[in-house]
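Query structure, 140 tokens:
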């Protein structure tokens, strides 16, 4: 069964993989650095953790955005001749370079946002798109 030609089972695997990567990236891997770069205090974190409704809503929206992103990568993998894990990962890297990195860098250039924060966030985005692309290129 497919959604726009993309295997739905693989689509859910990519979505869950993105969620796990994000929870690791912004948790044990780089959570402390990210929180510091965001300028949040312990009180801010505790307040956010106490609001369970907002936290569940954020995870639900994160799931939806991961699902849509994986679907788009899957559609593009199907529409190109970039097959296999390497072709899919390459497509993910190209999508990141052409769309994510360039668009998000404007916040550093024009809004004075922290370049280190941009690097942390964009490293996650690059890795995520490459992993999703590799999975889609292999099984999507």
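Result returned for the query:
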């Amino acid at each position: 069964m497919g959604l726009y030609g993309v295997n739905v089972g693989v689509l859910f695997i990519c979505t869950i993989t993105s969620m796990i990567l994000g929870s690791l990236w912004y948790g044990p891997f780089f959570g402390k650095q990210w929180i510091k770069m965001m300028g949040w205090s312990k009180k801010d974190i505790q307040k956010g953790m106490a609001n369970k409704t907002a936290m569940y809503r954020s995870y639900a929206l994160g799931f939806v955005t991961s699902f849509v992103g994986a679907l788009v990568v899957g559609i593009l993998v199907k529409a190109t001749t970039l097959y296999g894990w390497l072709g899919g990962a390459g497509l993910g890297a190209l999508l990141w370079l052409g769309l994510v990195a360039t668009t998000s860098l404007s916040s550093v250039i024009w809004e004075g946002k922290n370049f280190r924060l941009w690097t942390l966030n964009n490293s996650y985005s690059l890795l995520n798109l490459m992993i999703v692309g590799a999975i889609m290129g292999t099984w999507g």
